[in-house]
């Protein structure tokens, strides 16, 4: 799956949880799976610490 396709697939999920403005990184690949990491703003502040797993 391309980075663009992965971002497009993640968009409805992020919108559903109110994080459709999150910065996305879809460069990571694990085996045959592409990973989309999202860095959302929480209360107007960017969340940068930690990584959800």
Task: Please describe what this structure looks like.
By secondary structure, this protein is α+β, with helices and mostly antiparallel strands. The protein has one helix spanning 3-16; strands at residues 23-30, 33-39, 41-42, 45-46. The model has no long low-confidence stretch (mean pLDDT 85).
Task: Give the key terms.
single chain, 53 residues, alpha+beta, two-stranded antiparallel ribbon, 1 helix
Major sheet strand order: 1-2
Q: How would you sum up the major sheet?
A: 2 strands, antiparallel
Taking all residues together, what is the mean pLDDT? 85
Indicate the radius of gyration in whole angstroms: 11 Å
Beta-strand residue fraction = 35-45%
- Helix fraction bin: 25-40%
Spans where pLDDT lies below 50 across 5 or more residues: none
What structural class do the secondary elements suggest?
Answer: alpha+beta
Number of strands: 4
**Please, how many helices?**
1
| N- and C-termini, Cα separation | 21 Å
> H/E order of the elements?
HEEEE
Shape: globular
List the helices and strands and how they pair.
Blueprint: H1 3-16, E1 23-30, E2 33-39, E3 41-42, E4 45-46
Antiparallel strand pairs: 1-2, 3-4
Brief characterization of the structure:
The chain is α+β, with helices and mostly antiparallel strands and 53 residues long. It is 26% helix and 36% strand.
């Amino acid at each position: 799956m391309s980075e663009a396709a992965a971002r497009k697939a993640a968009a409805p999920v992020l919108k559903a949880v109110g994080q459709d403005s999150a910065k996305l990184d879809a460069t990571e690949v694990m085996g045959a799976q592409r990973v989309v990491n999202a860095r959302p703003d929480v209360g107007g502040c960017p969340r940068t610490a930690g990584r959800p797993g």
